[in-house]
Write a structure and sequence with these properties.
single chain; about 120 residues; alpha/beta; three-stranded parallel sheet; three-stranded antiparallel sheet; 8 strands
Amino acid sequence: MIRDAVTSRRVVIEPFDAPPALAARGLTGKVVASGVLDQLSRLQDATRSSSAARGLSGAWTRDIKLEVPETGVSIGEFSRLLKERFGHDVHIDGNLVEPPTGGLALDGPRQRRAAKNL
């Protein structure tokens, strides 16, 4: 588990924050994040490169619920903490917004970048 954390170089798509109006139409942050993950996987499969491809995953896909007795910490949570501390993962997250021009955009507050249309 420690070696996996230290050598981790994945792209992790976090569930996006979606306003209630979008969620009511079925466009939850997890649904849109899954679509982004699918598109990135297709792009990666179509790209020819001599360099090793980074693994892609959704942050919600590996949630192991086995808890270590008397610690209050699950194995999945412990693994995630190790990867956050020692890994080299790239996390994609942000807020979904509906721009006046239509469509969807992803506003990444942590990255401090302008919104990107999806």
